[in-house]
Amino acid sequence: MKSRIADVTRGASKVFTAALLAGTILSTVNAQPAMAQSTVVVAVSPLGADSNLYWTTTGAFILPSLQTLVGQDPETGKYDNSQLAESWEHNEDFSSWTFRLHPEAKFNDDWGPVTSADVVHSFNLHIGDDAKLSGISQFREISVGAVDDHTVQFDLPAPDPNFLFSHAGRGSLAIYSKAQFDAEGIEGYEAAPAGSGPFRYEGRETGQSITFSTIADHWTGASPEFDEIQFRWVSEPSTRMAMLSAGEAHAVTLPRDLQDDAAEAGETVLASSEGAMQTTMLFTGQFMNPEAEENRDARSYAWADVRVREAMNRALDRDAILEALYGEGVRTLPVYTMDPRFPGYSEEIAARFDEAYGYDPERAMELLEEAGYPDNFENPKIPLVVTSLAGNPEFAQMAELVQAYFDIAGIQTEMREQDWATGNTAIRGFSADFVTPMRNAPVRPSALGVQIFFTSQASPHLDVGDPELNKLGADLVSETDPETRDAMLDQMFTRIFDSYAHLPMATVPASVVVNSDLVEGWTFPGTTSSGLSHFELIDLK
Amino acid sequence: MLRYLLQRGASSLFALLIITVIVFSLSQLSGSPVDALLPDDATQEQIDIFIREWGLDQPLWKQYLTFLGNAVQGDFGVSLKWPGESAMGFVLDRMPATLRLGGLAILITLIIALPLGIAAAVYKGSAIDRIAQGFALLGQSMPNFWLGIVLIWIFSVWLGWLPTSGIGSFAHLILPAIAIAWFQISALARLTRSAMLEVLDAEYIKLARVKGVSEWAVVFKHALRNAAVVPLTYFGILAASILTGSVVIESVYSYPGMGWVAIEAIRGRDFPVVQAVIIAYAVIYMLSNLLVDLLYVIVNPRIKHG
Amino acid sequence: MNTSQTDALLDVRNLKVEVTTKAGSFFPVNDHSFSVKSGETLGIVGESGSGKSMTAMSLMRLLPKHAAKIRGGSVKLDGRELLTLSEKEMRKVRGADISMILQDPQTSLNPAFTVGDQIKEALKLHAPGGRKTLRERTIDALRRVKVAAPEHRVNSYPGEMSGGMRQRVVGAIAISCRPKVIIADEPTTSLDVTVQAQYLRLLKELQDETGMAILFITHDFGIVANLCHRVIVMYAGRIVESGPVAKIFAKPAHPYTEALISAVPSLHGQKERLTTIPGQPPAPTDIVVGCPFAPRCQYADARCHSEAPPTVAADQSGDHTTSCWRAVEA
Amino acid sequence: MAEVQISAQRPRRSLWQRSRDFPILPLAVLLIVFIIPAFFAHWIALHDPYVPNLRARLQPPIFFGGTWEYPLGTDRLGRDIYSRIVHGAWYVLAVSFIGILVGVVVGTTLGLIAGYVRGWFDGFVMRLVDISLALPAMLLALALAAAMGASFLSVVIVVGFALWAYFARQVRAEVLLLRNADFVARSRVAGSSHFRILFRHILPNVTNTIVVLATLQVGIAIMLDASLSFLGIGIPRPTPTWGLLVSDGRDFIATDWWIAFFPGLAIMLTVLSVNMIGDWLRDTLDPRLRQV
């Protein structure tokens, strides 16, 4: 009996060791075949693009196998007909838009030409209940009809001069093949959606990577010089940097400081030709509402006082902060959501920026004293949100720098380290009581952005509570005359600017670092959510 | 012995039940998935649809019972973050990757720590002992993510021997497994050393020598058999800490295992997946403890009569 | 100790063991010479720390590896020098020619193996045989130490046995290969009196049966009187007296022996309050000038404190020696 | 077991002899790296640990091209690494001390009672121990941070949660041995209340165990703090806990290595010294605990 137990022991430990070994060896068997020579690898922080059904994602990354209606010029970011629409027109009040599709456009894998039916079909999918796309709500009110095989018409409930934005950088509508849907159903999309882009969807490892192969004779004539492109989701910046240095990745996104280090090591930093995002610190709560909201009394927070808000702005040495966060040459942003590319841009405000917002700690302290800060305030402490958001690794530093400058001016702070979703919960629940970093990416047309971030129109939880702004915002919705709109936007920006309604930071280009031994160049406008696009233009050595 | 194991099994099940309560309440506490899964500018309408669809408007106890009822059948619902994936299915998909990584880490740990601990005990006070102890102390005082990154730079970037990150070949497993094993090696080597020292001092070791048993057999037959109980008991904790360690290391190496799922799911407020992954962790832990109990009985026959 | 016995089975000459610790080095076995014949029992008596166990372990060459070293002398078994054997050759001697019974039956059996396995292990090493013969010999060994139902007991774990039974098993292991010499290191200290007596009787019977020599290490002169033919008395690493048991009991030559004998319990076996020797033996690392026992000796004089006594004969026969100034003077 | 076993009854070593093995060097290192900075940060820091100096970003340490102004270099906001480490010591000390205290109090109380009253309560506590060991602390931390926001408190809770089970298990095991000891039986006969027996008679007998275990847990607590910072759920910025410093510098390990290296070194030296002192304490106070 004894020897039996000994045998069992020996047996058990052998089985155990064998199992471990077998598991380990099996994993070698599982190994993927060595990658083809001409695979371009792009490593970025995870974008949450874990579905082939684009409308069920938040729209952070549109599969390069799919196309939208409107394209953008890689150099200037101007709308162009490089995607499915050959041309477009709108009626006088911007409430009806007609797109003419490229007649030669066709889906890959022999799913036939791209027609109006595909657009209507895709549109219906995008406004389904499972849609989570950013900005999709406006689409729900739209009716779409095929005028002919290659012409579609969108009828909008309200005028929208910025409708092209939805079809370009915002990417609210990706065109799927109706033929594939009819043949294979939604499962066909889930397995491998056919698109009309210059790449074919090859497969994904959830949370890990997506791979595309290039199309040989693409209808646009685009001919990338590589066979495959693979996007890898890698959350650690240093790991991405290591991938770049080890030659495992052709292009990676990196935080600013690491970009410098990479450049020093001989890699090349490529910036988008246009600003890809605007950043700011936003005050939350309806702090400009003269009658305290029944939800909460924003005015118990120090930033309800305009003098305190000005002091906060004056306390910041933006040149130094922005250089530390984004490097030299980044543009300071006079008003968040205002952008020279879009209507409503005011030169006058931009010119006044230094005078009104320039670094002046003495003035800040005077203002604080005037306001009776901190003694007159119930809550003199300013809670600053420290958070990390994919694509914005600098947000944590931003909060730290702001805190440091506030401290110098005598503004009390409290750091709130929380994840992005937690902040969102508070904002959506109207219980936010902090100052949080925020980004506008892709840079929305000003009329859209200002509504979202400052008025009660698009997202009431971000409303600053100012009656004047809300009135202007409400009027703007129905106004179609471009000049009147310009004037109204100007008024809104002036109002925001003069009442120091936020802590504007910068307009930042998207940038990637490429391995200079492998990549010659790559031009992209930085107009999408991720800032990346035009992968077919990646120029290899 | 069977009764003993059954008893252990039953109490594990009870513990699992409690864990479901904890997991459920924690995931409730951690906020609404709405904010993690819908875009920043989602409308109220979008939010309402979402809430209704996922039953987030039901009373909590009802949500829990529904959850438990389904969980028993292995159904944790559908992932909110990874559309079209069943929560447990998604976790189970990732499990082999983590088990492979954990298995290799355990293997490395055992292969290095046991001989090291034994050698340190047998040659107590010698250079080997001092090296082993130094190694043990070092291993226990280095944050594992730090080690992980350093390993990437040394072996992937400078030496170019191994891939930096990701999953695929066996080579991809080596660095993360070492990074996970490092701390465990030191802990296990330390334990083995002290357990062996204790045993080597015992009279029966002297008796074995007196009988003319070779030193090799003294160490590996007489001493190890008795000392093994200690590292074995530790095995349960080892398994748990390797799983825990994998949460951080999988993130460093962008290795899509359960740890990665756990972090992504919690950040994304993907309740079903969070619940599934924690339960899966707990089950692995408890199974490995049951295995330990079993091995324990085999290695140490005394317990059978105890 | 000039009584070199040519018929000695185990002959130890001038054995010296040095131990090195952080606190310094010392000689727990200092110039020991003694011998034992077949069928003879030699008692080694002394307080704890006197170097008894160290002597035993050095005979087995099982001193702690780094700390203790044999620094000289010779150990001859049947005329074969043990100290120069290779470790491999020595392993063949251990368990086969010289065997040992350790102090504590509670801990000297390996709890993870059956007693049968532990007996068999020694047999396998020194007298290999088939599975069946090994089993028979194992059972036989158990039978010889009077373990009841040995066929069943071979499958028992030590944890399932009483202390006395375990000590018998330890004995069975020791005699299993029929060694010429058995060293018994206080084998009965932890047993109760009745069991102790039984065990000692058993040892005697086994000796009669096999003619083996026994080195019996103890601190109890009572046992020595019952069991041993000759005795050596140790104090602080030195042999202070040696001779036949009868002579030493009749006329102890060293004051320390005298004190030890007076500490023996009465013949009825009742443990009365014993005469104790005042004071403590010197710490092993202390540098001793003169007779090490002098500080505790009621007869000590100035010379005892300043000069170490030589070893001299205590009577005319020459088989009784001591190292005490009083004997020198006599 | 430093000395050779001379006989079965090894002479007891005096306290003086034992104290000769006292690890002086680790204690000195601990004082210099950890204790003194923790209590005297304001005196020995060179700069304000919170104030960025954007003109002195990423300065290398002295001997690597840097200056005495910033002996260990600066981080990416131009803050002095040395001063940040020095100021961080206090928080590291506080987190590990309070976290372990939480673990000790909870674990010891439950372990004491469980081992003493046995029965269902014992079973219950041991299940809790199982549960707590089966729930990876890191996941709990993530959920907790999401629920209540990361704060000093949440970190302390996580550390306490991660450690209490070890105390409970060890203390219970010892109480099981002690509850039948003579002195317990005597005081029971003498009519002592259970409370009195537990806390006046049994507790003092497990104190050594607790002290030793607690010392050995300091390293684990510091590591845990570092891992939490890595996941972004540690003590919030700008508090320069060492975990945050290492975690913040991790992107720069290959280039501006000093940002993560020196805080890492501080962690290493501290954990190393604490562990060595812990080992010594264990060997001296409670050799039975070798296996923890």
TrEMBL record, chain A:
A Pfam family that the UniProt record links to this protein: SBP_bac_5
Any GO molecular function: peptide transmembrane transporter activity
Coiled coil regions in record: none
Keyword Transport: yes
Keyword set includes Nucleotide-binding: no
Domain Solute-binding protein family: 83-440
Subcellular location(s) per record: Periplasm
UniProt entry keywords in alphabetical sequence: Signal, Transport
GO cellular component entries: ATP-binding cassette (ABC) transporter complex; outer membrane-bounded periplasmic space
Gene3D superfamilies: Dipeptide-binding Protein, Domain 3, Periplasmic binding protein-like II
GO biological process: peptide transport
Signal sequence residues: 1-36
Family that this chain belongs to: Belongs to the bacterial solute-binding protein 5 family.
Name of the protein in question: ABC-type transport system, substrate-binding protein
Automatic annotation (TrEMBL), chain B:
CDD domains given in the database record: TM_PBP2
One term under GO cellular component: plasma membrane
Gene3D superfamilies: MetI-like (1.10.3720.10)
Record membrane topology: Multi-pass membrane protein
One GO biological process term: transmembrane transport
Subcellular location: Cell membrane
Pfam families: BPD_transp_1, BPD_transp_1_N
Chain ranges passing through the membrane: 12-30, 101-123, 144-161, 167-189, 232-253, 273-299
Keywords of this entry: Cell membrane, Membrane, Transmembrane, Transmembrane helix, Transport
Protein name, UniProt field: Peptide/nickel transport system permease protein
UniProtKB/TrEMBL annotation, chain C:
GO molecular function terms listed in the Swiss-Prot or TrEMBL record: ATP binding; ATP hydrolysis activity
Domain ABC transporter: 12-261
Keywords: ATP-binding, Cell membrane, Membrane, Nucleotide-binding, Transport
PROSITE patterns: ABC_TRANSPORTER_2 (PS50893)
UniProt subcellular location: Cell inner membrane
Superkingdom per UniProt: Bacteria
Classification via SMART domains: AAA (SM00382)
Any one GO CC term of the record: plasma membrane
UniProt topology in membrane: Peripheral membrane protein
One GO-annotated biological process of the protein: peptide transport
Family of this protein: Belongs to the ABC transporter superfamily.
Protein name: Peptide/nickel transport system ATP-binding protein
Gene source species: Poseidonocella pacifica
TrEMBL record, chain D:
Span of domain ABC transmembrane type-1: 89-278
Superkingdom classification of source: Bacteria
Keyword Protein transport: yes
Mode of membrane association: Multi-pass membrane protein
Transmembrane parts of this sequence: 22-45, 89-117, 124-144, 150-168, 210-237, 257-281
Gene Ontology terms: cellular component: plasma membrane
Keywords for the protein's UniProt record, in alphabetical order: Cell membrane, Membrane, Peptide transport, Protein transport, Transmembrane, Transmembrane helix, Transport
Annotated compartments: Cell membrane
One Pfam family this sequence matches: BPD_transp_1
Keyword Transmembrane helix: yes
Family: Belongs to the binding-protein-dependent transport system permease family.
Protein's name according to its UniProt entry: Peptide/nickel transport system permease protein
